[in-house]
Amino acid sequence: MKPTLTAKLLQTLAPWRNASAWHIAFSGGLDSTVLLHLLADLAKNQSLPPLQAIHVHHGLQAAADAWPAHCQAVCDAAGVSLRIMPVQVQAGASLERAARDARYQAFAEAIAPGELLLTGQHRDDQAETLLFRLLRGAGVRGLTGMPVQRPLGEGWLARPLLDVSRAELETYAREQQLSWIEDPSNGDSRFSRNYLRHQVFPQLTARWPQAVNTLARTAGHLAQAQELLDELAQLDVQAAQLPSAFPWLALPSLALAPLRDLSDARQRNALRYWLAPLTPLPDSEHWVGWNTLRDAKADAQPVWRLADGQLHRCNDRIWWVPAAWSEFSDTALSWPHPQNPLQLPGNGQLYFSANAPEGPLSIGYRQGGEVMEVPGRGRRDLKRLLNESAVPGFIRGRLPLLYQGSRLLAVANLARASTGQGDDWQLHWAPPTCDQGLS
Hints:
This protein has 439 residues and is of the alpha+beta class. Helices cover 36% and strands 19% of the residues. It has helices at residues 5-13, 30-42, 67-78, 95-110, 123-135, 140-143, 166-175, 192-207, 211-240, 256-260, 264-275, 288-295, 382-388, 393-396, and strands spanning 22-25, 51-57, 81-86, 116-118, 149-152, 155-158, 253-255, 303-306, 309-313, 317-322, 333-334, 342-343, 349-354, 361-364, 371-374, 378-381, 401-404, 407-411, 425-430.
């Protein structure tokens, strides 16, 4: 016997029965109306997490002003609370994408840790997504379509109707005598997805009646292929995660040599996996930046600029440097109480091990031409000392320098660039990390 919509929903949501709350993305359209009705009906005889509906009001058309009242009436009848969230849609090349970004930003803000957002996308939506992305030249990851679940904000998003056709939803809605909103913009074929829905898919299904099911199944096959690629990437990235010579520099980095041993395709696969949480990735035409960085001379310090930061190569290692890394104040600071840690504006914290040297002490940053007295070695140029320690170029400008009056005493974290000896003292710097807002 073919499982009912209720049975499908319960099976899909079984892993989330212990979530602290379920939120329903409720536009008032057919898909979300059926989802709301199913869940409200289930809650009458099943132990479910608390339900709340969220209606995002985009304000893009006059007709939409009446939708919150409709959604409120539906929720009142179902016994489900409703939260209405107005948003501002930023102008851009794609109104569809801008509205989607605003909508999901609102959802992310609405759900707390351990909570779940449920959306009503169905099998036809999945087929449209696959064809749309195929026409845009997406890779395997893009062609996997919409995942059944993914992280969202501090919680999760789930699409429990992805294996259900729009026809099944319509049948259920008419049997239950549900009313829903028909968005006038859904008939506007100037929007890409509407064009596919109203112009392309009717012709596809006229010739191949199972086209929607086939495309949705293809997305599933590609999702399995992506899982295998991710497993391979995990192994390759793990092999390149060798210890850094600068353990205090808590930025993502990889040893370059293990990556060089891989084929070009495996290199890109590993880097896509590693960079995905850090920055939007470039299209295939702009991956030449990786080749340039990888193949530069050994003494070069090339940079590959990406959307949210830069990839640097220093001493046969690649480092991810977030865009916000340059946002710090290099103004000199006095340190009147060196027995206490010193907070550096936008640049972490300084502290001494053992007793601090006598004052007056201050902190500055490299300007060029600095010289310091190193025990047993005499006067040395700071540039040479940094080269000897192989300090990555991108960090040199924000390495704190300790001064006693006008005398340079130490470079933070570099024992070879310090006047401290034995157990006298050492200057330690805890730089900002990606978790502190640099990503």
